[in-house]
Specification:
It is a single chain. 76% of the residues lie in helices and 0% in strands. By secondary structure, the protein is an all-alpha fold. The protein has a single domain, classed as Orthogonal Bundle (Proton glutamate symport protein). The protein starts with 10 loop residues before the first helix and ends with a helix.
Length: 387
Amino acid sequence: MMALKHSNIPVLPLILLALLCGVLVGGHLIPLEVKQHLLSISLLLKSILLLVLPFIIFIYIFSCLTSFEGNVFLFIGLLMAAVCFSNFLSTMIAYGLSQGGLPTIAGDVFAIKGHLDPAWSVSLPSLISNEWALCLGFASGVIFSFYPRPWVIKLSEKGKTAATLFLDKFFIPLIPLFILGFLLKMESEGILWQLVKTYFPILGLLIGFYACYILFLYWIAACYKIQTMFLYIRRMLPAGFTGFSAMSSAAAMPLTIKGAEANTGRPELVKAIIPATVSIHLIGDSIGIPILGIAILLTFGYPIPDFSTFIIFVGYFILAKFAIAAVPGGGIIVMLPVLEKHLGFTPDMLALITALYLLFDPFFTFTNVMGNGAFAVIVSRFFKKGK
């Protein structure tokens, strides 16, 4: 299968939407044996991903932290603290929104009418837990940012290249096949149409909240001046629409820098802030993934997580953001083990949130890019005052 390249049209969501429509209309015509083999392939791809994921998490965190030099640790430390606070705030706002809005939208528990078993299964060993990969990546990244070694940096870049190749050339192109088996399973169980009716209204809820939150952030960035707020937003819209079409904050980075420079008048700070945070400051993901996750829990008959459970999830969720790969779907891929362990997601639920994330990813990425523009203005003003 050919790799899915970035273009002016978000190709992957269109493919998944066509796949969804095809299964809804003609899934019942596919022979049972074919469905079972396709489900087996989906489970195999999931096992391969979970086997490789600890390495991907480690190498992306390590590479991210070692790219910062120790002699600018104060600046980087404050910047990372601001990123973590913003992601934490966005995630907790999503939790609050879920408490009020989601039970009415996603409150119906699906009645399963059938069952589909895989034709075969392959069990792959787990070499290291994702939590250990997170901790080791952070610890070693901080150490080698202070005591850099050329061979370590070179090895880190090779590892990052290998991880990106695995995602970009192997797993991302196979995502439609990964999703297909689980779509057929949900179609066989009679819940696929119920899922469609449930989750597309949630997209409307997300878009509305995204718009309000972006306006709020730019209102703060503009020092509470409405006219200035809309000027800042207008300057950032080209970057936002680029992120929407490419499903990549990194692809929109040149325009994000340009818009933020115009809004701050401090190009030297913007050129340090945006590249350092473009893949880790993701308010669209911070709001969207928890809301989708809680909606899925509700529709599969689970309660909304209590506050203590959700706080533990948020901690790992924020740490995992440092390991996100700059590829379509990278925002959800590294979150799958966090959702599985800390929110109790089953394989069906993991496949569903992956499919929904990729369908909604253009809107998530638009919000990420616009959020990065506001973040750059607010943080640059903070450093200006602290200077």
